[in-house]
Specification:
Strand content: 35-45%
Radius of gyration: 59 Å
Structural class: alpha+beta
Distance between the termini: 103 Å
CATH superfamily of the largest domain: YVTN repeat-like/Quinoprotein amine dehydrogenase
CATH class of the largest domain: Mainly Beta
Number of helices: 12
Shape: elongated
Number of domains: 4
Number of strands: 66
Length: about 900
């Protein structure tokens, strides 16, 4: 996989304006609103980690590169001076001085030293200066010098007002209001010789400068003490210092001195070349009154009467900014005859002797500046002009001169996009340019690219993309070919480029190329990593892309392994979106057009800085879980589970830069992320041991040595050892209980199954018994019916025999035999005996029939009951008659009477009633 090197530079940019000055470095403003303290800042110091400390009217300000923190003195007085020495921050205030140290929680704690002063009383003293000399710390008020050494304080009273002190040649030199300089020797003041030149001058500051001492006066300029002799600096700088009241002096390097003034900001003076540059409020400072200065690496910090500023010295990017609005938004710039020309929405400007000049008659919107054949073309809102000898000459009346593109295979023929179509430009033999409108096209063309000498591609922002064929003279459109959507999702707002003689298109963030041989548009693989970007400058080896997303980065690449990104919030705010332009002056110098000026990049210097990155390891400034702040010296932070829902870890890497961070968390769970701030928030981590590695990310996307933090989220109470032991016993008891319960449940289930089986067995037996009884009843019913019918037939036969014998009585000669025969027949038809047998069998089948019938109808006679029984057996009248030994008529009469007794209506069937009766 192709490896890319991503370079990220973070620049703090504040605009500046001064028509008579060079380009200025970036300035970062820190307002009192941002650092949340008083506006006045009297002193600045920085520790070995690059963390800033400021003497402020409200107290001591601490800036670790990420956060500002204010610490107040116990008496809440103004801090006038500050100095960092060997891990301690010494401060001076009203009748108070001492030092601050960081405690185990990352906070500063104050220790006063004034109790060490013996036999001396303060006289309304404020301490304005603190200097280290070897192992001693010197505090200066306007009347006294205090020397702190070996935990003792010695006092040197001066017979004059002490305006400033300095360390020079490993001694302390003192300046007094009597306009003289003194050495401190053996706790006494010894005057220097040859100081007549300083007589009558108020010395406000002194700093060593090589082997010399710079002496700054309030209104008389600056002097240089060398080998015991005092000389005045050149008037080039001194005239400025006299006018604007010098206040602070700082040596930046062996040739450069910074002067802070009361009325006009800061001056940087090169003593070798006798040149200076001024930065003031008009150029980006928050205030013109400089109260303190501090150099740290390539930065100049200013403590101002209103705010704190950081100036990026020797920065590879410098800026020219129009605060007045006169220049406006710059759309193009070009170097012409060794002068820089700017085209803006207000006209054409150029620099001459570092002064911005306006080209008369150029007022209006300027879209394009091109140098062609030694002539400067200006595409203007009102037409196209050629600028020569400071004068504009119009060569085209067609309004809105956009891009001028040379026609391939011609010497001096150009096509220009305008508000209303295309224009043709040709240089005649006499050296004069002539222009004409290309007929046959009437829509605005801002971008165009040639496919060949007679075919040009043009994009309309709303109507789409067109391929236009022209005649050989390029004066007339012969054919319009509209490019339909196909490989391109959308033909609106397309951007066109001619890269290495190939038509390249950008649509909706994607890149495409056109193949004229196959007449096919396909994806452009070389730009696949630059989706959603505009190409704003390119040549054969370098490409500049502008990121269209919310981050709006500028990316420089060779399409290989070398790539870097310019990423800055202030720069993003100032770029002219959709018209952003990068102009190459040469292989190293590039210009950026801005909404209020322009920027200049020295690419060689920038790339050299990338090779010398000093990347600090982050430091932990706080470790907070819930509301508890931990000590920073802990080997392993222990976090209770109930406060571990949110863990906040703050880190910083010093005030030199606004760093990006990368962290890796390993443990019960793992996670990693890049951060543009120093606050790492970990949420809802499960308990367990964790290792957190935090890196500072360089401008080349390289990682610093990690800061390793180990912490352990303790188990919650319900996972403590005692809880786990309790869970173990509860588990054992639960297992036993479950086993007992299952055993009981199984026994119960077995019992239920047994009862169910018994019940089912009983039901089966009962069913069998029932079926058996039903069969028995059915058998008995059949048998009873059969027996009854047999008796009935027998009786019927006997009756017939009796009737037959009675009819043939005369045939019997022996009367006695006739009677005997009649008696035998009568005895054979024994109704009572037959009834008893019938009754026994009937009661077996219908056990309670007679009892229930008598209960309901108590007036029934035995004979009625017999008839009821025969009727229940569903016998007919004819069948009942022989059973009862009466005639059919007798049975009918009996039935009639029975119906009366039972109170049954004639419409109801008597037999059915008795059959249903239980």
């Amino acid at each position: 996989m192709k490896t890319k090197l991503f370079f990220l530079i973070t620049l703090y940019l504040i605009p500046f304006w001064n028509i008579g000055q060079n380009l200025s470095p970036p300035i970062q403003n820190y307002s009192s609103y941002e650092y949340n303290a008083a506006s006045k800042n009297w002193g600045l110091t920085i520790d070995e980690n690059g963390e800033l400390y400021v003497a402020n009217n409200n107290g001591l300000l601490h800036f670790n590169g990420e956060n500002w923190t204010l610490y107040k003195l116990p008496n809440k007085t103004i801090i006038r001076s500050v100095a960092y020495v060997n891990g301690k921050i010494f401060t001076g205030s009203y009748e108070e001085f001492g030092f601050w140290q960081m405690n185990d929680y990352g906070s500063l704690v104050y220790t006063s030293l004034t109790h060490l002063i013996k036999d001396h009383e303060f006289t309304n003293e404020e301490f304005w200066q603190i200097i280290q000399l070897n192992d001693a710390i010197i505090f200066r008020s306007f009347s006294t010098v205090y020397i702190y050494k070996n935990n003792e304080i010695s006092v040197l009273d001066a017979p004059f007002v002490v305006t400033t002190i300095a360390k020079y040649k490993n001694q302390i030199i003192v300046a007094g209001e009597q306009r003289r300089l003194y050495w401190i020797k053996d706790n006494t003041l010894t005057p220097l010789e040859s100081q007549e030149i300083l007589e009558g001058k108020t010395i406000v500051d002194m700093v060593p400068f090589g082997d010399s001492l710079i002496i700054g006066t309030k209104l008389s300029g600056c002097f240089l003490l060398t080998d015991g002799k005092v000389a005045l600096l050149d008037d080039t700088i001194n005239n400025e210092l006299k006018e604007h009241q010098l206040n602070k002096v700082l040596a930046l390097d062996s040739n450069t001195i910074a002067f802070g003034t009361i009325k006009n900001g800061v001056y940087t003076y090169n003593i070798k070349w006798n040149t200076f540059q001024n930065l003031n409020k008009a150029l980006g400072l928050q205030n013109n009154t400089v109260l303190a200065m501090l150099q740290y690496k390539e930065q100049l910090w200013l403590g101002l009467d209103n705010g704190i500023d950081k100036i990026q010295l020797n920065n590879p990017i410098t800026y020219y900014t129009d605060h007045t609005g006169v220049l406006g938004t710059v759309y193009d710039l070009v170097d012409y005859n060794n002068e820089l020309y700017l085209g803006s929405n207000t006209g054409i400007y150029y620099f001459r002797d570092n002064k911005l000049q306006f080209v008369p008659g150029s007022q209006g919107h300027v879209w394009d500046l091109e140098v062609i054949d030694g002539d400067l073309f200006c595409g203007h809102n009102t037409g196209t002009f050629i600028l020569k000898d400071g004068t504009l000459n119009k060569v085209s009346d067609i309004s809105g001169g956009y891009q001028l593109v040379k026609v391939p295979e011609t010497e001096s023929s150009y096509i220009q996009g305008t508000y209303t179509g295309l224009a043709n430009f040709k240089k005649g033999k006499n050296g004069k340019w002539i222009s004409s409108r290309v007929t046959g096209i009437d829509f605005p063309v801002k971008q165009l690219c040639f496919e060949n000498a007679n075919t040009v591609w043009a994009a309309h922002p709303y109507k789409g993309l067109f391929k236009i064929k022209m005649n050989d003279e390029h004066t007339k459109v012969l054919e319009f070919i509209e490019i339909k959507t196909g490989a391109i999702p959308n033909t609106y707002n397309i951007k066109l480029y001619n890269i290495k003689n190939q038509i390249i298109l950008s649509s909706e963030g994607n890149w495409y190329k056109y193949d004229p041989i196959s007449d096919v548009i396909s994806e452009f693989e070389e730009f696949k990593d630059y989706k959603d970007m505009n190409l704003v400058n390119y040549n054969a080896t370098r490409y500049w892309f502008f990121d269209n997303d919310n981050q709006k980065k500028i990316i420089h690449t060779d399409l290989g392994e070398n790539q870097f990104t310019l990423d800055d919030a202030q720069l993003r705010k100032r770029l002219a979106i959709e018209t952003e332009t990068i102009v190459s002056y040469n292989d190293s110098i590039y210009y950026f057009t801005l909404t209020d000026g322009f920027g200049k990049l020295n690419l060689n210097r920038f790339e050299n800085e990338l090779k010398n990155v000093d990347l600090p390891t982050p430091r932990v400034s706080s470790f907070i879980d819930g509301n508890e702040t931990h000590q920073l010296k802990e080997q392993e932070y222990k976090v209770p589970f109930n406060t571990s829902k949110t863990i906040r870890i703050e880190v910083a890497a010093g005030s030199f830069n606004k760093y990006t961070y990368y962290y890796e968390l390993n443990g019960t769970i793992a996670q990693s992320s890049y951060l543009d701030h120093g606050a790492i928030i970990l949420q809802n981590l499960p308990f367990g041991e964790y290792t957190l590695k935090i890196h500072t990310v360089s401008i080349g996307n390289e990682l610093s040595e990690p800061k390793i933090i180990k912490f352990k989220i303790l188990r919650p109470w319900y996972f403590s050892n005692w809880s786990l032991l309790g869970y173990f016993f509860i588990g054992i008891a639960s297992i036993l209980l479950v086993r007992w319960y299952n055993k009981q449940k199984l026994a119960k289930k077995h019992h239920i199954l047994k009862v169910q089986m018994q019940r089912e067995q009983e039901e089966r037996l009962a069913q069998i018994e029932k079926e058996k009884l039903e069969k028995e009843i059915k058998r008995k019913q059949t048998e009873l019916a059969r027996t009854t019918m047999s008796v009935a037939k027998k009786n019927e036969l006997i009756i017939e025999l009796k009737d037959l014998i009675a009819l043939n009585q005369e045939a019997f000669t022996n009367k006695q035999r006739f009677k005997s025969l009649s008696k035998k027949l009568d005895s054979s038809m024994n109704e009572d005996q037959d009834w008893k047998h019938f009754e026994v069998s009937f009661k077996e089948l219908h056990e309670d029939f007679f009892e229930n019938l008598l209960k309901k109808y108590p007036k029934l006679t035995p004979k009625d009951l017999r008839l009821c029984a025969y009727l229940k057996m569903n016998h007919t009248t004819k069948e009942i008659a022989p059973l009862m030994g009466i005639s059919v008529r007798g049975v009918e009469i009996h039935r009639y009477r029975l119906r009366k007794k039972l109170n049954i209506d004639s419409s109801q069937n008597l037999s059915n009633y008795l059959i249903k009766f239980k």
